[in-house]
Amino acid sequence: MTVFFEQSQIDQWIGEDASYLDLTSHMLGLHKQNTTLRYVVRDPIRVAGTEEVAEIVCSCGGQTQHYTPSGVAAMPGQTILLAQGPAQAVLRAWKVGQNLLEFACGIATLTHQVVQAVQTVDASVAVLTTRKHAPGVRKLALKATLSGGAMPHRLGLGETILIFPQHRALMGGWEEVGRAIARHKYALCEKKIVIEAADLDEAYRAAQAGADVVQFDKVPPETLTQIVPALRKAHPNVTILAAGGIHAGNAASYAATGVNALVTSSLHYAKPADIGVKVSLTEPAESQEPLVASKLEGLE
Amino acid sequence: MTVFFEQSQIDQWIGEDASYLDLTSHMLGLHKQNTTLRYVVRDPIRVAGTEEVAEIVCSCGGQTQHYTPSGVAAMPGQTILLAQGPAQAVLRAWKVGQNLLEFACGIATLTHQVVQAVQTVDASVAVLTTRKHAPGVRKLALKATLSGGAMPHRLGLGETILIFPQHRALMGGWEEVGRAIARHKYALCEKKIVIEAADLDEAYRAAQAGADVVQFDKVPPETLTQIVPALRKAHPNVTILAAGGIHAGNAASYAATGVNALVTSSLHYAKPADIGVKVSLTEPAESQEPLVASKLEGLE
Amino acid sequence: MTVFFEQSQIDQWIGEDASYLDLTSHMLGLHKQNTTLRYVVRDPIRVAGTEEVAEIVCSCGGQTQHYTPSGVAAMPGQTILLAQGPAQAVLRAWKVGQNLLEFACGIATLTHQVVQAVQTVDASVAVLTTRKHAPGVRKLALKATLSGGAMPHRLGLGETILIFPQHRALMGGWEEVGRAIARHKYALCEKKIVIEAADLDEAYRAAQAGADVVQFDKVPPETLTQIVPALRKAHPNVTILAAGGIHAGNAASYAATGVNALVTSSLHYAKPADIGVKVSLTEPAESQEPLVASKLEGLE
Amino acid sequence: MTVFFEQSQIDQWIGEDASYLDLTSHMLGLHKQNTTLRYVVRDPIRVAGTEEVAEIVCSCGGQTQHYTPSGVAAMPGQTILLAQGPAQAVLRAWKVGQNLLEFACGIATLTHQVVQAVQTVDASVAVLTTRKHAPGVRKLALKATLSGGAMPHRLGLGETILIFPQHRALMGGWEEVGRAIARHKYALCEKKIVIEAADLDEAYRAAQAGADVVQFDKVPPETLTQIVPALRKAHPNVTILAAGGIHAGNAASYAATGVNALVTSSLHYAKPADIGVKVSLTEPAESQEPLVASKLEGLE
Amino acid sequence: MTVFFEQSQIDQWIGEDASYLDLTSHMLGLHKQNTTLRYVVRDPIRVAGTEEVAEIVCSCGGQTQHYTPSGVAAMPGQTILLAQGPAQAVLRAWKVGQNLLEFACGIATLTHQVVQAVQTVDASVAVLTTRKHAPGVRKLALKATLSGGAMPHRLGLGETILIFPQHRALMGGWEEVGRAIARHKYALCEKKIVIEAADLDEAYRAAQAGADVVQFDKVPPETLTQIVPALRKAHPNVTILAAGGIHAGNAASYAATGVNALVTSSLHYAKPADIGVKVSLTEPAESQEPLVASKLEGLE
Amino acid sequence: MTVFFEQSQIDQWIGEDASYLDLTSHMLGLHKQNTTLRYVVRDPIRVAGTEEVAEIVCSCGGQTQHYTPSGVAAMPGQTILLAQGPAQAVLRAWKVGQNLLEFACGIATLTHQVVQAVQTVDASVAVLTTRKHAPGVRKLALKATLSGGAMPHRLGLGETILIFPQHRALMGGWEEVGRAIARHKYALCEKKIVIEAADLDEAYRAAQAGADVVQFDKVPPETLTQIVPALRKAHPNVTILAAGGIHAGNAASYAATGVNALVTSSLHYAKPADIGVKVSLTEPAESQEPLVASKLEGLE
């Protein structure tokens, strides 16, 4: 797995839905019948999360026969995961897996679209994802955005130095920020220092304060197009990011501004993918259905 | 709290973002300065999750001075939670709390709009939320939809009997389903039996099989308008639900069809609310700012 | 598994007994010797929990060769689970598995007796189990009562509406309860509303307040026999439950009163089954012993 | 607390019952009303677990005003814990606390009776409790048996050396056991070595093999009375325990046999205590009710 | 707290030592006596971990009156934490707290010595700590090294790019590494790329492959002194680290080589500090003892 | 496994280092390549922890081909664990496993040296390890000391009675301690009572108070040599321990004093073993390399 999920996370996803019995299946006497479960794509998507669903199926007592790996495209009608096992195992995994796939594939698909749109404009512009998302989904959202071709901006407070205006307010101003950086930069020699700026003037002050990276927040593309060259000229070694309000609808415009990367939270709130679920008794000699994507090179 | 969150859940939300140190604040020397944190609303919203953010602030080492309770409306510019404490406590809680509020208030706001739209059409039609959402967010999503005025459809596999076509496929057909219900219904005498149907014919078969509730899946409002009266006439005691593809854009149409309730997953994928964060050094004698909503009657 | 147990639960059961080393086995040099462990029944029982013990054995490093499934009868002398593995694995699982089997089989056996007694009197009367039991054992107790043929009354506060006199005391009286139900019943259209009553008069008031189900608490069978027909006549659609003080000794009497179901906590405090444990070095070519029950149809 | 319970254990007890919302209270609009909760004893009991219930109440959002400490007697009609708080907090704690008290007080009460019966016969005979009980309740059962005056026999595999016949079967016989003890006893010089014996002959062999303690298993009291003096004479320094089938009905007989202690599992399956629950709106100036036991010296 | 510790971590530390009862205190009747616990320093140290011990004391049921904050020096005889509470609370916390303080203060003290030694030689050389330590102690070790004045090198695999020879072996060689960097560097524009090198030649190849930081592994100080100027001349923007075998005994020599920082694991295996524990009955009007360090400016 | 580790512990070790992605491997495209990982010993060691590393590898998605069992010696150049699997699995396990092996083998190696040194002087003197170590590592440290040939002194507060001077201070003095022991000793008849003493006089008082074991704290070997015979003469049945400041440098001297066992914490802070890691692409028909130790008899 690209992202490591603890067994307790897998179990927690299952337990969220099936903490006690499956009352319906129990009433219907669906216990040990050999059952086949298929997740079938309804729209073209970029796959993410099938490895995790395979683990869910396994923890429920079933077995995954094959799946389309994360990072690969799938077409309408395609089965992206086929699992088998006793009815009670497979029916328990059903909705847990479906929820996960709809969430992760939805994000991966949108991410891929945005990355494609950006790279079409300028192949050297990266799409980076933020720490903004529903509480508790960071790992899965990361798996999904990686599957779509994006990279994380930062994954936690302990990873990079990113100075927001809120920090500046506490410090007292640009000068105090600059002094703190000057004093401690030697100890952070493996890190880049990122400072958020609202306009060109702040960007200059950020660079003078010691920023290796200037992150423009909520600056429109047309403005960025004007000020990025000025900043590059004054500080050629500074990396320039655009952040705040970037989404599928304006990513291409931002990509054309000359920045190094777009930082966006919008991918984490992508529309879920539409994944159908087929359940059937397992045929005695079930023929392996041909899979389009299994020959492709996936992320994992 | 309406919904019970374990301490480990609160801590896991914090740890997701701040598992190690806050590198930026550490470098800037922001440790013990008395700091005030405000979550400020940018659009009119229905509040949800402030009680949980108060717990996050507490677990980070700060204190919440006041907050707008879940279930209450808030206006642009309004501070819905004000916390104080040492800089390192408050800065650690900042984004964790913001993410939670944006997610929960976004859902509560959309839920409230849909409930209002539905009730305007027919005050006896309920809005019920499904088990479909990002993995791991069920409790928080429930808190948010309750705050917006909806009720849960069901919260897990062990709670109600809900027979999908997939169950029917495993059983062999309607007759086998009917026989299983006939055999076991006495033991489920406290429960209603819900069966999903794709059209009027299936609805009849469901009712004959013993359904107390028929849930139409993906039947357009105009069709429902025609078939609901027929089903009511044939089976006056049967509760009728509409599910599948219901969202803010068509909820009012569905509400006019004569069904008892709408079952929808769409609220769980609401656009996040836009919540700003203000951080400042705590004034020595900080005057308590007047809050619009604190006098209102919230959910809790 | 009928009931889903997280790996952390399996491990917690083991860790409760074997959190550090097995000092006795370590001193005796019992480490890697191939060892066979048999759980042998001393009295006729209804089996429950063997699937979970198989998981315990596996997590300890051993393997289960065969077991009698939950829900099946076992006779004195019968081996209901046979495991093999290194001595240290098998000896670690020994008492953990024995405790689980004695607890679960004890409950399943008593449950089966009570269900049989009730069904002999009236096959349409259900036995339902409550939320009363030792803290932390709900899932395992559920597995055991399901194995004995009972169904759960309710598994948590979020599942059904059950109005106790304590709620009524807070509301102010029957009228306030009735008003709340009238106002919210539409939103709970998939649920039945259960109200507890102490006598016929309260039952009438409950039904008038909107109860779908009236649960008599601590009403003796002879009284119930008199008042159930009256209630049925007045409210033919109301489901009637008897609860409070029902146990193996009086369940048949309650079954004859005309109620729909008996709600009982007593099964959770059943006498533990007496399960012996045999441990031996594994014979090089150990012949598989024939098992009586393995051909029978178990719960899972 | 005599026994340490992690916050996650407290929360898990609550979550077992109230993992999502309290549907009944939510429907009835019971949210913030100041509410008083009383646990009232119906029979004379020995109290256990009130400290843990106080923690449950606190984690639910309420406050415990006073409680009778564990280890103290309580009389019918006595309130052993009085808590207050918002309705939703108090109603969530209600059944969780009741279940805990019924379980723990039931065990403590029986334990106290058995200890009294034994000490009346011979004040130097101890009552020791085993590792046999429902899975997952060891800590709470320990709290309860300590509250009743018993001591634990052993709390896990890592604590003492206790050689069962099953170990002997793996070792090959008494001689191999004796050799292992001879070889390793120096390294266990802080521990006593306990060996189980079925009769006097085995007891002699156990003592010769190096046992500091001989534990007779399932030897009737009348037989013990005869063989204990012989064993004492032959091995005056050996501690003698009786185990297997000891319960409230025969403990006094066992106490008269001259053994040092009785080892029993039966206390863990005591009948639950009968604890009533009163719920009311909190009076504005609620007078503190006098408590009988609060002046007594409890265990904690 | 500089580093966030979940409640479950605090509880796990306590449970590791006190999972059941405190048998000694229970036997001695040490339950509720008001007790004072003092951690007293025996050698000059740099304090770390007192904030965490205060949480341990609290979770055990006691209260911390005052403590010396992490990051401050303490002198022999100085009490660095004074707690009070019932005997059973304080005695439970005793050894858990002592172990934590000895571990954390030991690391902080050595760290401070090494940082001082390094800064005396060259104030612009940082001391960075690695991911090498006993399993499970990363957070506490981080707290301790921060308290001693060091910074983390990296805290996990997801934080920085650090290419070891082992990666190179899998890639096939320097050229393949260089190609991968060239292809992906734009997407890591907020990160520095660190490559390990064994000698000057490898350092050149690393820089040519795109390294922002070259980390020399196990190169002796005398060799470094010679090659660092050459590398600086050829690649003036490259940051240079020394790693591998750096410890208190040679850190000053490494500091003189011209590198930017020393990367060391040795601090995590520092000798534990010697912290004595005094326990006494709390005096009725106990006078607050004057504390040397409480006036100093600590880390938190 | 000699010591039971829960799956959550294995996962927590992995998650500590690899909570999100492996950024370096991801950038380098190291995903599915078949990769071989070898842990190679650089100095002669006693192995400990390989069973746990095998579990880490498995949880990361790889497979362990063979390993040298804990408790066995290994020579420089020897591979003590060889694992294979996809690059991303093996690279994730790499450092987690290395850290564990360096910690555990370091302790086992030093333990073995001390045990050898002690046994050379007097084969009847045991080496016992205390509860002093870094927080959270008790189980792994126990595994390591057992692998080196030591035994645990005690593993938690609930296991033995060990009366420290701090207890005595709370009780009031020796007489109160003696009275408590006299009153409760019958209930602890399976346990030995251990009392710490600072000199011969205290040892006499301890024995008179009822100690089965006297533990001298910080008494130099030369003093012990003088006073042990006196104590043995006066109290021939008392077990005598030496504790406090015992380490590899003086263990042999302590072993010659006539005590029964040495109690030491120093082993838990052993220098980590030096374990190299080799990573390579798996050869298509990789020949199994011969292993020196795999034929030896390990601890497990």
TrEMBL record, chains A, B, C, D, E, F:
Residues 107-277 form the Quinolinate phosphoribosyl transferase C-terminal domain. It holds the Pfam family QRPTase_C. Gene3D superfamilies: Aldolase class I, Quinolinate phosphoribosyl transferase, N-terminal domain. InterPro entries: Aldolase_TIM, ModD, NadC/ModD, Nicotinate_pribotase-like_C, Quinolinate_PRibosylTase_N_sf, Quinolinate_PRibosylTrfase_C, Quinolinate_PRibosylTrfase_N. Keywords: Glycosyltransferase, Transferase. Residues 22-105 form the Quinolinate phosphoribosyl transferase N-terminal domain. The keyword Transferase applies. Belongs to the NadC/ModD family. This is Putative pyrophosphorylase ModD. It comes from Alcaligenes aquatilis. The gene is modD.
